[in-house]
Specification:
The complex is a heterodimer of chains A (about 280) and B (about 300).
Chain A: H1 2-14, H2 20-29, H3 34-46, H4 52-66, E1 83-88, H5 95-108, E2 113-117, H6 125-136, E3 140-142, H7 149-162, E4 167-171, H8 180-194, E5 203-209, H9 215-226, E6 231-235, H10 245-253, E7 257-261, E8 269-271, H11 274-281
Parallel strand pairs in A: 1-4, 1-5, 2-3, 2-4, 5-6, 6-7
Antiparallel strand pairs in A: 7-8
Helix pairs in contact in A: 1-4, 2-3, 5-6, 7-8, 9-10
Chain B: H1 3-19, H2 24-40, H3 45-59, H4 62-66, H5 70-87, E1 99-105, H6 111-124, E2 129-134, H7 141-152, E3 156-157, H8 166-177, E4 184-189, H9 197-210, E5 214-220, H10 227-238, E6 242-246, H11 255-264, E7 268-272, E8 280-282, H12 285-292, H13 301-304
Parallel strand pairs in B: 1-4, 1-5, 2-3, 2-4, 5-6, 6-7
Antiparallel strand pairs in B: 7-8
Helix pairs in contact in B: 1-2, 1-5, 2-3, 3-5, 5-12, 6-7, 8-9, 10-11
The chains are: A alpha/beta (about 280), B alpha/beta (about 300).
Bound molecules: guanosine-5'-triphosphate (2 copies) and magnesium ion (MG) (2 copies).
One guanosine-5'-triphosphate sits at the interface of chains A and B.
């Protein structure tokens, strides 16, 4: 960000010394975490030829290298079967919205997509996805209130296979990763999906809110145990949250973001691009 | 109780005592550990620095350094200061007539759930709450509030489908309320990002129209560094009277509470501790202080030490 650059630059054009604490402060401000921030500073202290002019760029380079050069993309649907995508995460991160946005994106690319409203728990969660489906003209398979979410996913899967959909996107209820029985429910959904296609779900996406601090890593760890994650969607990137937690998740778990949510509209959704992401971190 | 952080500091000081002297640098090391603990709990960088600066003198007093467990003493001092700051001049809700409560916050923070929880709580206290759905943005937001209202048997005002003007909706709701025999109205608003000036301005207009007694900022306990930005922006726009911290049933350390309290001076009034509507209660500063310092948290500090 320009402010950061200017601050460091004015600082360093006056003195030749780099204010490492200032660098750490900026990295921490992006929710990269203090340990990682100190690590980056230590790493940069070692490098030669570092000055005010290239400090920001060097920092970005370190961060860029943490991510794969190309974001994970969704695999192609298996021959004659729908590609099943499971959308999971803690409460309120943007799962339902992201499920709708992703369905919209795939549909725009010419694919046939079915949504499954498997959050039968939260008040009006089904209506919420239904309303997106209506607006975007996407077929939807709905669960009844309090219906077992695994059985909703199973029924949706049956429909997707029968009717030749290429993608099935299952929206699930928000759950805190500390709730053992709810995490177990996710494992059950996963097993149930595998009944009609041993390789399903083909992609499990964890939705993380960009405003989240250090807890995002704990979320990723626990969800990964319950249902192995393929990638992460970082939402609310249009806010002041930088989503620096993606760095921690990448570092520790080697799970990269695949999409970013950038607003409340259907089009506010983009594939993760590490260069753009890192440039917005600082 | 003060397990990890305290143990770590005790070790630091024990080593020092062996050497027979405690230097500036050793003290700096201890404070560094505290600072790390706060930052890892998501306390904002500037807030952590300022807070430590303020508490430093006390924590480094002679009695502390001479005590058998100086680390434990220091942690206790920080813990008590955090609790004091978080508790501060906490007061209940101002419900003098016309009692109106506006609920605001970022997308997905827990506003709608909190509105219903608060209504239930007030109802159980013998008041007659009314809920008003002022979220015209999120798909099915009105349905969500209406479903929760029905669960707790509280009347709810539902704007006509397609309504776009929140102030007009609020005006209609005030009309409706005359027919309802309620004693306190709770207005649930749409989530928004604090950098979205148009939406913040909409909130400002609603606030100006309602002149609510209470404007509660709902914030997720897992919020990171921009808790400061969020709290300041909402506070400037709609003069927040209290903060509600949600999703405390998770394992987020909740440093955002300290950040928001520090920069706005506004009390944290309630905490949300689950998705169910009765999982809600007054905020407990002491418990929050323990949580921020990671007490009893085995994976916390030592893992990285
Ligand atoms: N500004 C912004 N808001 C978003 C974004 N993604 C989702 N939201 C909003 O965040 C709030 C929560 O979104 P949902 O999709 O309902 O989240 P969820 O994870 O399904 O929530 P639960 O099912 O209750 O756990 C809504 O107000 C959405 O409009 C985004 O990228 N930017
Ligand atoms: N575990 C837990 N979940 C909560 C708590 N409070 C709210 N939630 C959940 O968080 C999610 C979002 O809650 P909402 O009340 O819809 O949040 P909101 O702020 O109204 O969201 P928008 O109107 O979209 O901005 C839902 O899944 C709630 O059930 C809490 O204290 N603990
Ligand atoms: Mg949802
Ligand atoms: Mg809401």
């Amino acid at each position: 960000m320009a402010g950061f650059f200017k601050k460091l630059f004015t600082k360093f054009s006056r003195s030749s010394r780099i204010d490492w604490e200032e660098l750490e402060a900026e990295l921490v401000a992006a929710d990269i975490g203090i340990r990682r921030a100190m690590g980056i500073a230590d790493q940069l202290k070692e490098s030669k030829g570092l000055d005010a002019e290239n400090l920001v760029e060097s920092t970005r380079e370190v961060l860029r290298r943490a991510f794969p050069s190309t974001a994970p993309s969704l695999p192609a649907p298996p021959e004659g079967k729908p590609l099943v995508i499971l959308v999971v995460g803690v409460n309120g991160t943007g799962k339902t919205t992201s499920a709708a946005k992703l369905a919209h994106l795939l549909q725009k690319q010419g694919s046939r997509v079915l949504l499954a409203a498997a959050d039968t728990f939260r008040a009006a969660a089904v209506e919420q996805l239904q309303s997106w489906a209506d607006k975007l003209n996407i077929p939807i398979c709905k669960g009844a209130p309090s219906q077992d979410p695994a059985s909703v996913c199973y029924e949706a899967h049956t429909q997707a296979i029968r009717e030749g959909f290429q993608y099935l996107i299952c929206d699930t209820a928000g759950r805190l990763h500390t709730r053992h029985n709810l995490m177990e429910e996710l494992s059950k959904i996963r097993r149930t999906l595998a009944k009609q296609d041993a390789s399903a779900p083909h992609s499990t996406l964890l939705v993380v809110d960009a405003t989240t601090g250090a807890n995002a890593l704990a979320q990723a760890r626990e969800f990964h145990k319950a249902t192995p994650l393929d990638s992460v969607i970082i939402t609310k990137m249009d806010g002041s949250g930088k989503g620096g937690v993606a760095v921690a998740i990448m570092d520790e778990m080697h799970i990269s973001p695949s999409f970013l949510g950038t607003g409340e509209g259907a089009e506010d959704f983009e594939p993760f691009n590490r260069d753009r992401y890192v440039d917005s971190l600082l | 109780m003060f397990s990890l952080l305290a143990d770590k500091l005790d070790n630091t000081f024990r080593r020092l005592r062996g050497l027979g002297k405690i230097s500036e640098k050793n003290i700096a090391d201890a404070l560094r550990d505290i600072r790390l603990a706060l930052l890892e709990a998501d306390v904002e960088f500037g807030v952590a620095r300022e807070f430590i600066g303020r508490v430093k003198e006390r924590a480094m007093g002679q009695e502390v350094l001479k005590s058998i467990k100086p680390g434990e003493q220091i942690v206790k001092i920080f813990r008590d200061e955090i609790a004091a700051l978080l508790g501060g001049d906490a007061v209940g809700l101002d419900l003098t007539d016309p009692a109106r409560i506006m609920v605001v916050g970022l997308n997905g923070a827990g506003k709608t759930t909190t509105s219903a929880k608060l209504a239930l709580r007030l109802k159980n206290e013998g008041r007659r709450p009314l809920l008003v759905a002022c979220d015209l943005v999120r798909p099915a937001a009105v349905d969500q509030l209406a479903t929760l209202a029905e669960q707790i048997g509280v009347p709810v005002y539902k704007p006509a489908p397609g309504s776009r003007d929140v102030v007009a909706v609020a005006r209609e709701a005030l009309e409706w309320a005359r027919t309802q025999n309620g004693t306190v109205m709770i207005f649930d608003t749409a989530g928004r990002q604090e950098v979205d000036e148009a939406l913040i301005d909409e909130l400002r207009q609603l606030h100006a129209f309602l002149s609510p007694r209470e404007t509660l900022l709902v914030a997720d306990a897992a919020t990171g560094q921009q808790a400061v930005n969020v709290a300041q922006t909402f506070d400037r726009a709609v003069n927040v009277t209290g903060i509600v911290l949600t999703k405390l049933d998770g394992d987020a350390r909740g440093g955002a509470a300290l950040s928001m309290r520090s920069v706005t001076g506004k009390p944290i009034k309630f905490s949300g501790e689950g998705e169910k509507l009765d999982q809600f209660g007054p905020f407990v500063p002491g418990r929050m202080a323990d949580r921020i310092l990671g007490m009893g948290d085995i994976v916390g500090l030592v893992e990285h030490a």
